[in-house]
Amino acid sequence: MDFLVTLRRLKELKVDVFFYNERIHLLGQAGELLLTLHAGIAQAESENKSENILTNEKYTGASLYGEIESAEFPSTKRMVSNPLEVHRSRNHHPPIIHERRFKRVQKLKAKRSNIEVDEYGNKVRKSTHYSSKKIVNRAKKTTKPQD
Q1: Which residue among 64, 78, 100, 138 is least crowded, i.e. fewest CB within 10 A of its CB?
Q2: Are 20 and 44 in contact (CB under 8 A)?
Q3: Structure pTM?
Q4: Taking the C-alpha atoms of 134, 139, 140 and 141 in order, what is their torsion angle to the nearest 10 degrees?
């Protein structure tokens, strides 16, 4: 957060910075707090965008057609299509992430996920709080005291 470090240094030097869109003065009573909140939100949005590169198959250079269908007009509902009717085009555009890495990430995310699909296709939470943690039963070793 170089942005906040720079702002704090300016504040120490008694330099007021006015952010026009937010109507915030750095030297104002709540200035640093509001700017810290804005910076935190921006950081979260940036991390979210970065994470999406790891979840969207389109970033591997593939395009999917017919994956989701719209219900009949005027409904705004969307329905998942039959997987056999989805058309996939490989090398449609230059990839951002290689397909092998994308598939490894998807396996890792599924392994760490706390959600699984039951026998009826419903998404349900796993019984453990943190799915990547496993219960390990360790037998206690007892040693006899040496004489």
Answers
A1: 138
A2: no
A3: 0.43
A4: -130
pLDDT of residue 13: 93
The DSSP secondary-structure symbol of 31 reads H
d(CA 96, CA 73): 36
Torsion-angle region of residue 91: left (phi > 0), alpha (psi -120 to 50) or beta?
Answer: left
Tokens read off for 53: 């590169």
Q: In angstroms, rounded to a whole number, what is the distance separating the alpha carbons of residues 51 and 46? A: 9
pLDDT digits (tens, 9 = 90+) for 76-128: 776 776 777 777 788 888 988 888 998 898 888 888 777 888 888 788 887 65
Instruction: Give the distance from CA 132 to its chain's centroid.
Output: 17
Longest CA–CA span in the chain (Å) reads: 87
Report whether pLDDT(29) > 90.
no
Q: Where are the domains of the chain?
A: 2-52, 57-125
